Amino acid sequence: MDKDKELIAQWIDKDPELRKYYEEHQRLEEQIEEFVRRPYLTTEEEIEKKRLQKMKLAVKDKILEILEKYRKVGG
User: Fold this and answer.
1) Which residues, including other chains, have CB under 8 Å from residue 24's CB and lie 6 or more apart?
2) How many other C-beta atoms can be found within 10 angstroms of the C-beta atom of residue 7?
3) H/E stretch holding 74
4) Which residues of the chain have pLDDT under 70?
5) Nearest-angstrom CA–CA distance, 31 and 53
6) DSSP helix/strand/coil, 10
7) Which of 45, 52, 62, 75 is 20 to 30 A from 36 via CA?
């Protein structure tokens, strides 16, 4: 994971798509953390939390796809 962070740091200012997905991932993480901090979630909140987690995972997959492209060209 440290290698991924290094690649992100190296390319985030040069790749607008990577920046977009990275910022989206951070935003989703913050929203999920809001739910995690609550002592109790309603059924609707639990469903929303799960939805956000799935979205975050999909965004992470996109980030990893982009990073793989940079790994292939020598990072």
Assistant:
1) 59
2) 20
3) none
4) 1, 75
5) 9
6) helix
7) 62
